[in-house]
Amino acid sequence: MKRVALYPGSFDPMTNGHLSIIHRGLETFDGLIVAIANNTKKQPLFSVEERKEMILSAIGHDPRVEVTSFQGLMVDYARKRGISIVLRGLRAVSDFEYEFQLANMNRKLNPRVDTVFMMTGEDYFYISSQLVREVAMFGGDLEGLVPDPVLHALQRKFADAAAEARARRNEPLPAPSQPPREKEKP
After folding, report:
1. 94 belongs to the catalytic site
2. What is the pLDDT of residue 180?
3. Which residue in 66, 86, 89 sits closest to 74, CA to CA?
4. 177 has catalytic annotation
5. How many Cα atoms occupy the beta-carbon half-sphere of 7 within 13 Å?
6. Does domain 4-126 have CATH number 3.40.50.620?
7. Average of pLDDT values for 124-148?
8. Is 61 a catalytic residue?
9. What is the pLDDT of residue 171?
10. Is 91 one of the catalytic residues?
11. Angle at the Cα of 27 (from 117 to 14), degrees rounded to 5?
12. pTM
């Protein structure tokens, strides 16, 4: 019987820390369901579909990984999918208290669900999706912090803000990846 774990999160956007947990999770489990939480009360930077595509591109469409989304309680989704193992990543001690509460609440709501914690690698313990969004918004360098598909999506999303930030720092604009369009004549 295959052991499949559910790896839930917002992944808005996915970071190299998330990617590390996925790769290491696949060394422990036969498969992973990466489940994007669709919280209708939050305004995400990327749509669920955009996040799905970025994750699939980052993992190389590995057949052992299913990328999906859910609304509502994660334990209800786990029950519906027949999953009893939840994989969660821990970055720092500050994560532990929240994750400990969440794991115990999930266990109270569904006693068949166990949470397995995996420490994020030392190269990624300081990275969070929120910090990545903020750095991207101000045109900071995200090289090595997020997978390439995410980096490109963030650059597209914040192109104007990044150009303004570079101008404030007196940095040259990057070479365009496509020739500029000619302006239409009036």
Report:
1. no
2. 46
3. 86
4. no
5. 30
6. yes
7. 92
8. no
9. 66
10. yes
11. 60
12. 0.83
